[in-house]
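Entry 14. Structure prediction run on the chain below.
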Amino acid sequence: MLAPSARVGCRSAIAPASAHARSAQTFKAFYATIRSLRQTYEPPEPDDVEPSEKDFILSLLRANPSLRDTKSYLASFGPRPQPPKSPALRPEETPVSTEKEVAADAETKPPDIKLAPSPVVASILNPVHRRTALIKLQAPFTDRQLESIARGMVYLEKLGLVSVIVVENDQLPRGDSGERAAMLEETMRVVNALEKQGARARPVLGAVVRLGPKPEDETSTEPRDYTIPEAHTFPSDLVHIRSALRAGEIPVLAPLALDSFCRSVRVDANDVIAALVRGMAEVAALDNSPALGEDSPSLSPDEVDLTPLRLMIITREGGVPSYARQGMPHLLVNLTSEYQYIRETFDPRWKPAHPTALSNLELARTCLAFMPPTSSAVMVSHRSPSHLIGNLITNKPAFSSSLPHALLQGNRKLTPHTPTLLRRGLPIRVVRTVQELDKRKLRTLLEKSFRRELEEDAFWQRMERDLDFVIIAGDYAGAAIVTREPCPPGTPSAIGPITYLDKFAVLPKHQGDGTVDFLWVALHDETYGLGLPFSANPNGGKEGKGEGRDLVWRSRADNPVNKWYFERSTGHVRQGDWVLFWCDAEVRLKTEEGRRANAGLSYLEDWERGRLATWTDVVMKIPSSWKPKTKQIANAA
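Output returned:
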């Protein structure tokens, strides 16, 4: 057995040796990259390709995109619009070529190119748009995990989304003498994993960002709701990334930055990603500007659009834990209205399993501030490459956040690895008087959403008399109008007055961007979810204080939205041309279930007797808010 001094001496001798060996390996990998001496990728036999292709197709099918999702995807990635065809010449106007002109054309045009290519050839020569996504790979990952992640990146590339990957490794201590070599080695692992899946990847082993905020950030007085990135970049710094994208390669970067002495140092990957998102968005704006300056980069018809369309944070942790789901992940986050509250309600007991959840949440908020309004960020586990495809095609969470908790957790749809979708979102507020409403904007919202003309005098008289509250999303991008409908004398207090959802409207341009779910969750917190701990959202409403009420509403039997209502309601009953929906107060249900333990609830509880008849009698007598269609046509004429 060695003495302590001898063991210390051995360690000190081994450490430099291991660091030297690691540096040598990194140098060899770098040299092989430059000289294209990496092991060549041998395509597998057709039998081996089939499962991967099947996985890709199944992932597309599981995404189950709606017609709106498909149109949105094609708008971003579909073929470029063709220029209008010139009108066909009449026979008498058709020019007749002389023999000399025909001979000259034959000399100037290769014989294998036809004047009028077939539609198939035209579609091949006119590929889909290629867009970019910033990917944070939060290592360490095993080889098997990297294989799964790389497969997801290849799937995204097939669909037109090219990844710009930044690699991080939380287990590499900062300041260690061999940290740079270890990070470069980790970067090469990712490159090799991508190439084994058939992708073309390029390691960018130098720094492409600079330490410190931009000079104008320090003097700007503009109000911000995000953290200024601790790094920045200029258009000339993105040359290596643009070169890789033009060549059809996936750039893979180490988290390095240039300091004030032009030294390349390791920094937090979040700073690199935030700087890249901002820099790429600024360069894309220059590329798309109508008048380019002399110093602006040249544009090509096949140039990859550098505007980041997605931010994907791939970790071993999965999504952000939710106080409303007992530590299970949030499904959809409205960063504008929920960011601060999520931080305040983050349970310290979640920290060991989700050490970077809050820092990644902050990264998403910063990046989305520079990305287009339709962009989103997703925090996803390495176990879920198929969720990346679903997010790209539908831009929606894996499951709707407005679905009942019991439906998600009872069927075990929600797991610790369910991804969290984050959007910049809209502010949500609750108003309780008609005087606080902007009548013009609310009327515009209702008429555009329902495509009907409002009977204003009767509608506003009814609102003055029966309004309970209105939930407003943004600048009237969406609204939920709730009234308190009086019941006949002698009606039990458990039934009346009725909390009635009079209108639920979202502007067409905001349908599909999460506003519907944001509104419904706020509606849940103010009505049938009131009194539960997770209903205490700071949206200007009751903040979870009070007694939950049954929510009732009606919808036309042929309304295509009814499928969405069926999934969120406790029950429904058909009444001729109408369907009556309701959601039971959740606190009352939980109280009764706890009181009866294993006995459970009966099909008809005492408080439910007579309520359906009362609801039907009152709700079906509520007058329509719209002008008759014949009257609308007469006014238009």
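The two ends are 102 Å apart (CA to CA).
Filed with the rest of this week's runs.
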